[in-house]
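Backbone geometry tokens:
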Amino acid sequence: MGGVLAAVVALARVAHSVATRGSSGLFNDFYDYWAAGVLLNRGQDPYHIGALHTVQRAAGLQVETGGGYSYPVFFAHLLRPLALIAAPQAAFIFMGLSLIALCGAIALLLGSIPRVSWPVALTGGAAAGLFPPVIGSLYFGQANLLVLLLLAVAYRCAAPGPMLGLASAIKLYPVTGLLAAVTERPPRLLQHVPSASAGWSMSRRSASPTTRAAGSSSPRSPAGWIFPRTRHLLDQRVDQRLAQPARDCLDLDQAALARAAG
């Protein structure tokens, strides 16, 4: 319910802005995406600013081209079907997809709150719909809400790797999350390599049962919620590798005692 309210509030706010201030700049960014898709359909370079502006001018669009199309080419390929229809109709379809993405993203994020109540869900949905970046994304036809949905799906641990990869193929800033994990000391990504995680696994096993039970309700690190199954399997492998030397030493000690007794 909170996601639906967020989409309704955001759409109402955009409609109010158009009614009171005019439609200047409406779908400005989407028209860059659309023109890039047109150029791809023609076999041309979507990053050529002159060709992009020519396509927009031929379609009768009054937009600020600025730096032209600056997103990964994968996103332009995704929009090629919309580039087959007129720009205004394509823009409204894109807005509809953005509203669906906003609804789904807010529903997923609110659903991550344990035992969320209806007042909290409605308040969160209304606040999300009134959030200025959300309104701006809808008004200018930006891709942010599509990326938000993918990040929300990744946050809820549903195919996080592919979701983050797809989000980064639309806009590059989700990659910064991976950079933060890599540059951390020690890198979080290395925690999933058995040889680098032996010390971490030993400290984890030395924790008391009470601490480990409480950890399930504490905030989880990205290493915990991005790869939960992989982490569990690698923990088992680390435990096996750590236990094997102990078994070997025990066998040697027993053999030495047997020789001494003999």
